[in-house]
């Protein structure tokens, strides 16, 4: 059925709105192209000025799953605001498969409309919009890999989220010893938080620390800052150890200096999807990220279809004139311009005909 719904014929019959616009009228969890999710539950991790909550999501069958360490773009329509906001959040649960549930752990910031809304006002049963999982800050090691190399995670504040996804994956996919899940290798986890009260996943971390599972947990609070001396005490050969680092800029700079350009250090950078639209006649500045293939090209003003083909991709197309809708793909975020009408759009998760659409700034295409 899904293959039929994604076919050229159905796409043409559903034009100009796209088949997903019709499916969601019957059931918001039905989709042929887009990814949506129903909020199953919301668990409050911490309270205070910047509370943290974990949202368990049931995605539509179009969700392709994620690798531990990846993030996802979340689109929500905030009541009273006539637009959809999109923000990136790390996935906190273990790696998922197609259509499987996963969790997001989100800290509410006063200046963050989406994070505040999701933590303070969202409710179970609500539907939100998603991109496919993104990012290369992923766990390449697993208990299934034929090595027993040591792993090191260094995180600060909300940077703990992708590391928790990796640790949960290691424990889930590891082996059982006397009824206790084991990571299958030596793991050191060093985390910095503002205080014990701000520590998320505190109970789970305490259980992990107490169990004989191969994982050493070291939590540091308040004025305790990262030091190379302490790291060397915990992991003597840390520069030769596969390390994942995610945290605030101050922590990142200290750790980078300690590693001295070692290639074993991996760092998480969220590149904000910026709508830097160029006006007609202006030189376009921005990149087109083909998120599924992992390729990125500089926006040239040519159609996205042409730029995809120049990048070596082979997207489906028909008339190349914007008539048949065969080339329709999802623009997850960014600004594009309709070549025929000059109309620009920055609406996230929008179906566009890439044969008659050009990037007008940074944009991400599900291709």
Protein architecture, described:
- The protein has a 6-stranded antiparallel β-sheet with strand order 4-3-6-1-2-5, covered by helices on one side.
- The chain has helices at about 1-5, 10-15, 20-25, 115-120, 160-175, 200-210, 230-235, 250-260, 305-310; strands at about 35-45, 50-60, 70-75, 85-90, 100-105, 125-130, 150-155, 175, 180, 185-195, 215-220, 240-245, 265, 285-290, 295-300, 330-340, 345, 350-355, 355-365.
- With about 375 residues, it is α/β, with parallel strands linked by helices.
- It has 9 helices and 19 strands.
- It is globular and about 65 Å long.
Instruction: Kindly name the structural category.
Output: alpha/beta
User: What would the principal axes of the Cα set say about the shape?
Assistant: globular
Strand segment count: 19
Spatial ordering of strands, largest sheet: 4-3-6-1-2-5
Summed over residues and divided by their number, the pLDDT gives a mean of 84
Report the sheet with the most strands, covering strand number, pairing sense and barrel closure: 6 strands, antiparallel
> Helicity, in percent?
10-25%
Count of alpha/pi helices: 9
Low-confidence runs:
270-279
Strand content: 25-35%
First-residue to last-residue Cα separation: 21 Å
Cα Rg = 22 Å
Q: What is the ordering of alpha helices and beta strands?
A: HHHEEEEEHEEHEEEHEHEHEEEHEEEE
């Amino acid at each position: 059925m899904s293959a039929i719904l994604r076919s050229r014929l159905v796409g043409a019959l559903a034009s100009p709105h796209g088949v997903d616009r019709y499916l969601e009228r019957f059931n918001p969890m039905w989709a042929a192209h887009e990814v949506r999710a129903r909020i199953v539950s919301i668990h409050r991790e911490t309270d205070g000025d910047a509370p943290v909550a974990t949202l368990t999501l049931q995605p539509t069958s179009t969700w392709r799953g994620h690798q531990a360490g990846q993030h996802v773009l979340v689109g929500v329509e905030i009541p009273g605001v006539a637009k959809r906001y999109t923000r990136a959040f790390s996935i906190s649960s273990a790696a998922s498969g197609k259509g499987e549930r996963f969790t997001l752990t989100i800290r509410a910031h006063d200046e963050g409309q989406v994070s505040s809304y999701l933590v303070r006002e969202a409710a179970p049963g609500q539907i939100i919009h998603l991109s496919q999982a993104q990012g290369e800050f992923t766990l390449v090691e697993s208990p299934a890999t034929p090595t027993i190399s040591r792993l090191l995670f260094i995180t600060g504040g909300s940077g703990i989220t992708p590391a928790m996804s990796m640790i949960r994956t290691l424990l889930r996919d590891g082996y059982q010893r006397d009824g206790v899940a084991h990571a299958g290798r030596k793991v050191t986890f060093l985390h910095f938080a503002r205080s014990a009260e701000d520590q998320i996943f505190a109970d789970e971390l305490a259980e992990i620390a107490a169990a004989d599972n191969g994982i050493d947990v070291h939590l540091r609070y308040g004025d305790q800052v990262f030091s190379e001396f302490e790291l060397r005490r915990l992991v003597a050969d840390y520069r030769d150890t596969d390390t994942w680092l995610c945290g605030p800029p101050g922590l990142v700079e200290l750790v980078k200096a300690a590693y001295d350009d070692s290639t074993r250090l991996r760092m998480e950078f969220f590149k904000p999807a910026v709508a830097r639209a160029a006006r007609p006649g202006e030189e376009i500045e921005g990149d087109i990220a083909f998120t599924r293939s992992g390729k990125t090209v500089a926006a040239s003003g040519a159609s996205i279809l042409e730029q995809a083909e120049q990048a070596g991709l082979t997207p489906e197309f028909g008339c190349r004139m914007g008539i048949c809708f065969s080339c329709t793909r999802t623009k997850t975020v960014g600004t594009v311009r309709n070549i025929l009408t000059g109309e620009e759009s920055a609406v996230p998760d929008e179906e566009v005909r890439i044969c008659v659409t050009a990037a007008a700034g940074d944009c991400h295409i599900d291709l």
